[in-house]
Amino acid sequence: MQTVHDVVVIGSGAGGGTVTKVLGDLGVSVLLMEAGPMITPGDFKERLAPYDLPDRGLGPKAEGYFGGTSAITYNANFGGATIEGEPYTVAPGSQFRWFRSRVLGGRTNHYGRVTLRFADYDFKPRTRDGLGWDWPISYDDISPYYDKAERFIGVTGKAEGIRSAPDGIFQPPAALRVHDVLVQRACATLGIRAINGRQAVITTPTNGRPACHYCGQCGRGCRTASNYAASYVQIFPAMATGRVEVVADAMARELITDASGKVTAVSYVDKNTGVERQVRCRTVVLAASACESARLLLNSKSSRHPQGLANSSGVVGRYLMDTVGFGMSATIPALSGMPKYNSDGYGGHLYVPWWMWDRHKELNFPRGYHIEVGGGYGMPGIGSFNATVNQREGYGLALKKAIRDNYGISANLSGRGEMIPNEQSFCEIDPTVKDKWGIPVLRFHWQWSDHELNQVRHMQTTFRQILDAMGGTINTPAAGRGRGAAPPAAGPMAGAGAPASQPVAPAASSVPISVGGGIIHEVGTVRMGDDPRTSVLNKFCQAHDVRNLFVADAAPFVGNPDKNPTHTIIALAWRTAEYLAEELRKGNV
Ligand SMILES: Cc1cc2nc3c(=O)[nH]c(=O)nc-3n(C[C@H](O)[C@H](O)[C@H](O)COP(=O)(O)OP(=O)(O)OC[C@H]3O[C@@H](n4cnc5c(N)ncnc54)[C@H](O)[C@@H]3O)c2cc1C
Ligand code: SF4
Question: What's CA 206's distance to the chain center, in Å?
Fold first, then answer.
């Protein structure tokens, strides 16, 4: 007789890692299924220089030499926008990029670790301005879980008393760097407040993990586990309890239900053999990332669930959102000719919370954005100096001097803004295309609205004002790329929360807004709500239609405020896990 697992968790990123750790701590046994391989601390390349690695870390296709993003080429991500044999499609007229990481810990192994609480008003946007939808929970419901997450994973920052950036339980932040101070001063002349970055990094020893040693390599994991990744902060310790079993290289294909509509098993492909297997379960938690979770539900069709599982509302896949992205950088004369010094740290030391949250009458767009600040002398990666080389004639000593002179003299501003959910942005199952395991893939539809385009216009004006106040010369190519245009901040993740460059949506609007999915904050698709006719999950992220099915990634998000999503994924997943443990104890699921 096959074992019936109390809980099967699918996906081991921020959501799956949190559910697994919390349930394990509460004494619940978990089988954690992960589509990617197992990982060990030795897989991380932190503190290794490119020349320490085979092919300088370029990977089998030498992508970096040809413009690949060095920041994420030679780390342990096992992912990217292209995964061999696992395509996705984009509907005609849309543009969308889907960055996936197939590895234990998912994208948390190498993400930017910007860790921001949503504000109280972010949970009730429709009440405030009539757009989007309200969440079925309030800030007070989630705040205790932000507290728990911050105590456990560790987040830097200082209490500032700003409504758009709620304070939390912070570890002391690292000092600002020179470019940070210059940006902060420039912002002050415009009446804009710039504050210490809030990063999932520990600066004091925490739960057996040593404090950060400021090597500036967070984008490549952390061998001392001094920043947050689900792999080394949650899953390895959870495995040590003996209550958590990990099945790696296991691609969930479908959820199997019985006549009563409950999930009884998960069918998956063993990627090492290609053989299809099943595990039986009492409950299942989807945490495969927002779009993968929607895909699994839509692919779990049966005569009882012709639209896919838990989809009587038809909402699965709908209301997909990303963060609005725009970047601008400038060469700053005050930084030119400075002695080079080690300005490593842990990513973004400074950020600008949204400062006009109570002045919407002055704006032509709803909601708002924050600014992440990059710059400094991080370790150069492959491709770091492409821009200088493109801008300068010559070779040899003259070129080397130009590169040295240009190194670290720019400041980069990245806008990260709120998107209002719309009917035109969603994912669905492609009717013909399958991946190499025979699983139907997702097709994406995407459209920004004037709300987002006007927001980017505001970013353009504001960033120019800040950089002008620093006496800067705006770098070319023109703004729009990630956290600023060339020359890039040297070193992996030298700025803050996203890869060094993201493609920009084309000229349709002539506004250099990021491509949908390009900021890698895709959320929505399996949203929560009080009404089963318009939502898939209840306020504990439990399916309205299927009582033993839960979702614990960004799919339940009802909106996508400017704050990066992972802190809220963790807090929500923690709340869901506690609720599930209690429901199991009471025999309700
Ligand atoms: C370069 C970069 C920078 C970022 N910076 C920030 C930042 O600063 N702040 C922030 O808040 N967010 C940031 N993000 C986004 C952040 O990484 C995600 O929000 C977060 O990791 C999502 O967690 P998740 O658990 O939903 O999904 P993931 O972390 O993607 O984990 C999902 C896991 O599920 C597995 N999986 C998928 N499908 C299946 C299946 N069918 N069967 C079994 N397993 C499956 C995947 O292999 C993966 O391991 C960044 C992302 C990137 C890539
Ligand atoms: S900067 Fe700190 S947290 Fe980041 S990789 Fe280095 S030691 Fe780890």
Answer: 23
